[in-house]
Specification:
CATH architecture: Orthogonal Bundle
Radius of gyration: 13 Å
Shape: globular
Length: 117
């Protein structure tokens, strides 16, 4: 539960719950975090058993583990009205529509395999 107590990790988890698998570069771009800060929090979440990763081409894509997905989804549901979390989702939508995310650069059929990791 300590992993959920940090605002940066909560913002990461909110994006992963609401928008699905993402690369670390996309998370950095959306959240305006440094590479170091993003990596540190991703590592913390992986070590806590909340995230898994898969390499596709030059990207490493992160997603929430099935075993903890519902618990995290419920927790995020309690705080989803937070202004910062809403702004993060708006930034995601803008970047996605502008085709600036790694998801737009990976072949669609390869991206679909991520739903099964």
């Amino acid at each position: 539960m300590k992993a959920l107590g940090d605002e940066a990790r909560l913002r990461l988890l909110n994006l992963l719950i609401k928008k699905g698998p993402m690369t670390i570069s996309d998370l950095e771009h959306i959240l305006e975090f440094t590479q170091t800060k993003t990596s540190r929090h991703i590592t913390y979440l992986k070590n806590s058993g909340m995230l898994i990763s898969q390499k596709i081409d030059q990207w490493v894509v992160y997603t929430i583990k099935d075993e903890v997905y519902e618990m995290i989804k419920q927790f995020v549901g309690f705080v989803e009205k937070d202004i910062q979390l809403k702004e993060d989702l708006e930034v995601y939508s803008t970047l996605f529509n502008n085709r600036e995310l790694a998801q737009n650069k990976i072949q669609p059929r390869r991206w679909q395999t991520l739903k099964n990791i």
